[in-house]
């Protein structure tokens, strides 16, 4: 009975971990949608600014920036693929843990039934008693094996959740870095345009005076 109580506590802990995992997946999906939107807007702003400058150096710099953006998109897609794989493995483990819970409950019910039979019957014949003892031993062995498998899968699920949290943090950091780079590029191109306009204006002044 003590083993059954411990397994019930373990099931409660596993359901709490699964709830936390669902919350993490929801946060990750929201962050991914926001990053994709800001990323697309940043690329459109960079193209419009570069096309208006008509300067070879700025066009080359814009091409480099677009190549960097493409590399970031590839890296983000890789993170998405790995995250989907982790979600699939987490769902698979959740289903397996549910089946182990059902087996554990069934084994516990068999163990309780056998225990009641021993209490209710005061005198048992030798051969039936041996068979019942063997049945009880097998039930206990099955329950212990299920408990060990449950503990192993629970540890594996925790490891996958930790990997998922690490990937989420990396993607958030990448998003912040990408936003900062786009903003810096935008400011730099704006300053270059102003410098070019001033140079052009200065170059045309002597012609106007003459």
From TrEMBL:
Residues 143-193 form a coiled coil. It comes from the Eukaryota. Keywords: Coiled coil. This is Uncharacterized protein.
């Amino acid at each position: 009975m003590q083993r059954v109580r411990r397994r019930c506590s373990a099931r409660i802990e596993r359901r709490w971990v699964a709830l936390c995992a669902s919350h993490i997946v929801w946060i990750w999906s929201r962050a991914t949608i926001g990053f994709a939107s800001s990323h697309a807007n940043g690329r459109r702003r960079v193209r419009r600014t570069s096309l208006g400058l008509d300067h070879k150096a700025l066009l080359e710099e814009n091409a480099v920036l677009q190549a960097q953006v493409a590399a970031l998109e590839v890296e983000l897609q890789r993170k998405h693929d790995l995250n989907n794989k982790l979600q699939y493995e987490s769902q698979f483990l959740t289903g397996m843990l549910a089946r182990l819970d059902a087996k554990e409950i069934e084994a516990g019910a068999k163990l309780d039934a056998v225990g009641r039979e021993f209490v209710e019957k005061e005198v048992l014949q030798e051969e039936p008693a041996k068979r019942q003892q063997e049945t009880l031993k097998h039930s206990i062995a099955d329950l212990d094996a299920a408990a060990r498998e449950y503990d192993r899968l629970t540890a594996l699920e925790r490891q996958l959740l930790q990997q998922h949290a690490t990937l989420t943090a990396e993607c958030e950091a990448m998003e912040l870095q990408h936003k900062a780079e786009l903003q810096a590029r935008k400011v730099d191109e704006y300053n270059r345009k102003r410098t070019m306009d001033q140079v052009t204006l200065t170059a045309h002044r002597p012609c106007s005076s003459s």
